[in-house]
Each structure stands twice: as C-alpha cells, then as structure tokens.
Amino acid sequence: MLDDRGNTAAYLLYAFTRIRSITRLAKIDEATLKKAAETTEILLDHDKEWKLGKCIQRFPEILQKILDDLLLHTLCDYVYELATTFTEFYDSCYCVEKDRQTGEVIKINMWRMLLCEATAAIMAKSFDILGLTPVERM
Q1: Number of other residues whose CB lies within 10 A of the CB of residue 76
Q2: Residues forming a β-bridge with 107
Q3: pLDDT tens digits for 32-82?
Q4: pLDDT grade for 134, boundaries at 50, 70 and 90
Q5: Structural domains of the chain, ranges and CATH numbers in brackets
Q6: Sequence-ordered list of residues with C-beta below 8 angstroms from that of 11, at least 6 positions apart, any chain
Q7: What is the pTM of this model?
C-alpha cells in the first residue's frame, strides 16, 4: 500500500485531489474561476494564507534554480513544501462553508478558492515536469 503521509508521490497527489474536491464541492467551473481571478481582490488576512501565498510566489524562482543547476530534486522538495503548506491552509481556513444541518453550501470564499487553484496549477505543472500523472479523485 502506498503511504499518503510524508514526502511521497501519493501524499502530493492526495493534496492535489483535495484541491479538486474543494472545487467540486463549491460547484465552480473554470470560466467562473478565470473571471474571479480578474475581478476578485485576494485578501491574505490569515497567517496560513500569507504562508501559502509566499510559497506560491516562489515557483518561478524554483524553476530558474532547476534550469541553472539541473538538480530536479529541488522541484520535488518545493512541491512537498507547497503540499504541506496547502494542508496547513486547508486545516485553518475555510474555502467553502456549509450549513451544519443541511450540508448546503452557504458561502464560498473566492479569494481562498483562487489560492487553491493557483496551488493546483503549480502542482499540475510540477507533476508534468516530474512525469507524474495528476488525478482528480483518490
């Protein structure tokens, strides 16, 4: 059995599928996300939002480092850091709020959804570079 904890491909894929499940729960399509990316102000009020935002911003720097030194494991380390940072964010910050009794979605925090999507986009690109096939469900 694959271990979905720690610095493993299964853990990284699980983090990616978690993001996809948040998007499915919110019932937001790609067009809505693209429009929101153009019009929504990103509010980084929570320290875990800041931490994730800073981690996301480092992606171009990581790619440049890999091009400079040809050490691909740097990307593996970064994606693991991104996945763990996302997990901390996910545990602390609600993206989709549901009614406790009905389970109906009552609020979608779009700026947090955009952080999720940015994380997923970076993970998908990293998986492509590393030769991993992302999955929507696990």
Answers
A1: 17
A2: 97
A3: 999 999 999 888 999 999 999 999 999 999 999 999 999 999 999 999 999
A4: confident
A5: 9-130 (1.10.730.10)
A6: 3, 4, 5, 80, 83
A7: 0.90
* DSSP run (H or E) holding 108: strand 105-108
Q: Is 100 helix (H, G, I), strand (E, B) or coil?
A: coil
Distance CA 119, CA 136 (A): 14
Cα separation, 19 vs 134, whole angstroms: 12
Residue linked to tokens 């102000």: 41
Count CB-CB contacts under 10 A for residue 17: 16
One-letter amino acid identity for 122?
A: I
Residue 126 to residue 134: CA distance in whole angstroms: 10
Alpha-helix runs per DSSP H in the chain: 9-26, 30-39, 47-57, 59-69, 73-92, 110-130
8, 89, 92, 96, 125 from 113: Cα distances, Å = 25, 11, 14, 8, 18
**Contact present, 112 and 43 (Cβ < 8 Å):** no
